[in-house]
């Protein structure tokens, strides 16, 4: 049986059986042990909470913990009720401190407190360190489980210590070097330690550290850290004392979450924060309904503009034929600019103080786009409806493209300046604003050229 067929068979069995019989449970347990772990994770992500809980219970203990750990925190939270306290407590205790905190953030306070009480004192204290930092800070995403390598140790002493503590720490490949009072002074690698003579002082092996402060904003930190292609970097407090390590995979997760959020909000809905097929229907509706209501209300601006210029439309009915073209072009132009600038803000290519430079650049881009589209619109409209209509359409396209590109480029920066999410002010709102403003420009030009 091929691997794909095996997974399809597993999915059919899980979907068909709300209550798994003992005989079927034994069969499923054997089948679930065969596919790679990534495929079992995919099966769980495509299943409802009830069916996913069945899969996790049928897996071996170690495999179940690995699958649970691979899920998004919001998905883990959805599985809490279906799994029952005993299973959840076991999974919760096996999570890394930063992953544990991400799950706690998704749970009601009383449930989070109950799970915290199930931890042994050491794990509770380590988790408390991460919880002590504000949400959105890099301290909330770091691992506090770091080997203490002091600057007065040699290579052999460090290797002996790593052998003792390796199973209790997040990573041993990038090693921060600290003084006896925990101040960060350098970093070294496991490769350098292995290749050095045993008596070599670690100060001869260390280099100047790249580090972040625990209070730094998580997305901004991940943006500059990931391109460095480092496995991990130290995280320090205000006094530059070592408090944890940020690993590359955790930084990549931060960027994935941020990009998913921006993409969702640019499309006028909230991010689901878990796989689509495992997301409850009510949660999907909630992620969309508020935005639809906001956009419906904002779209009333367009209706009001049409009502204001009703007499103009009545005098030249042909103008109504071009409304979809003009509003669509304006919205698309604004969306292109907003998406480009929002991405540039996320990557650090553009900063809030660059608002004037962005506006000037988008004015010129909009003029060029409008000139090309306006010239084409002028020729086609003139050929079919005459010179006057051609002038109206060509002029409107020129001004609408210029206005929409400028607004689309500037709005995300304004959002950033006031502390809002640039993606929120991106495509949906800009489309509505461009529609209303484009119609005003259109009818004013029409009244002037046609003498209405």
UniProtKB/TrEMBL annotation:
**Where does the protein principally reside?**
membrane
Compartments annotated for it: namely:
Cell membrane; Membrane
User: CDD domains, per this entry?
Assistant: CBS_pair_Mg_transporter
- CBS domain boundaries: 142-205
Report how it sits in the membrane: Multi-pass membrane protein
Q: Which UniProt keywords apply?
A: CBS domain, Cell membrane, Magnesium, Membrane, Metal-binding, Transmembrane, Transmembrane helix, Transport
The transmembrane segments are 289-306, 312-329, 365-385, 391-415, 427-445
Which Pfam families would you find in this protein's record? Answer: CBS (PF00571), MgtE (PF01769), MgtE_N (PF03448)
SMART domains for the chain: MgtE_N
- Which InterPro entries does the annotation name? CBS_dom, CBS_dom_sf, Mg_transptr_MgtE_intracell_dom, MgtE_N_sf, MgtE_transporter, SLC41_membr_dom, SLC41_membr_dom_sf
Fill in the subunit field for this protein.
Homodimer.
- Family, per entry: Belongs to the SLC41A transporter family.
Q: What does this protein do?
A: Acts as a magnesium transporter.
Q: What is this protein called?
A: Magnesium transporter MgtE
């Amino acid at each position: 049986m091929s691997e794909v067929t095996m997974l399809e068979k597993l999915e059919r069995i899980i979907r068909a059986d709300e209550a798994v019989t003992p005989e079927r449970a034994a069969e499923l347990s054997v089948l679930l042990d065969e596919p790679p772990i990534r495929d079992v994770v995919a099966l769980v992500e495509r299943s409802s909470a009830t069916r996913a809980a069945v899969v996790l219970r049928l897996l071996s203990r170690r495999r179940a913990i690995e699958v649970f750990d691979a899920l998004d925190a919001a998905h883990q939270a959805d599985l809490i009720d279906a799994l029952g306290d005993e299973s959840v407590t076991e999974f919760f205790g096996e999570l890394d401190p930063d992953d544990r905190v991400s799950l706690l953030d998704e749970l009601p306070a009383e449930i989070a407190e109950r799970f915290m009480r199930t931890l042994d004192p050491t794990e509770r204290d380590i988790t408390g360190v991460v919880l002590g930092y504000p949400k959105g800070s890099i301290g909330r995403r770091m691992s506090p489980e770091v080997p203490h390598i002091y600057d007065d140790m040699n290579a052999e002493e460090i290797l002996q210590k790593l052998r003792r503590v390796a199973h209790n720490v997040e990573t041993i490949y990038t090693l921060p070097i600290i003084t006896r009072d925990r101040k960060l002074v350098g970093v070294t690698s496991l490769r350098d330690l292995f290749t050095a003579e045993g008596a070599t002082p670690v100060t001869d092996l260390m280099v100047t550290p790249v580090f972040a402060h625990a209070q730094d904003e998580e997305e901004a930190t991940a943006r500059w850290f990931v391109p460095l292609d480092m496995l991990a970097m130290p995280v320090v407090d205000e006094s530059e004392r070592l408090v944890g390590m940020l690993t590359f995979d955790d930084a990549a997760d931060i960027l994935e979450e941020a990009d998913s959020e921006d993409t969702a909000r640019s499309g006028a809905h909230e991010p689901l924060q878990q796989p689509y097929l495992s997301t409850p229907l009510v949660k999907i509706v909630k992620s969309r309904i508020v935005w639809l209501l906001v956009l419906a209300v904002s779209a009333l601006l367009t209706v009001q503009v049409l009502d204001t210029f009703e007499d103009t439309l009545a005098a030249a009915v042909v103008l109504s034929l071009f409304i979809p073209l003009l509003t669509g072009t304006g919205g698309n132009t604004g969306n292109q600019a907003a998406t480009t600038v929002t991405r540039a803000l996320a990557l650090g290519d553009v900063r809030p103080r660059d608002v004037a430079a962005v506006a000037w650049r988008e004015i010129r881009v909009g003029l060029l786009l409008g000139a090309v589209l306006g010239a084409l619109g002028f020729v086609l409209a003139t050929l079919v409806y005459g010179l006057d209509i051609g002038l109206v359409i060509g002029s409107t396209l020129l001004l609408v493209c210029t206005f929409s590109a400028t607004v689309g480029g500037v709005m995300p920066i304004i959002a950033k300046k006031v502390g809002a999410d640039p993606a929120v002010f991106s495509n949906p709102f800009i489309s509505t604003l461009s529609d209303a403003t484009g119609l005003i420009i259109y009818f004013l030009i029409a009244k002037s050229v046609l003498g209405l």
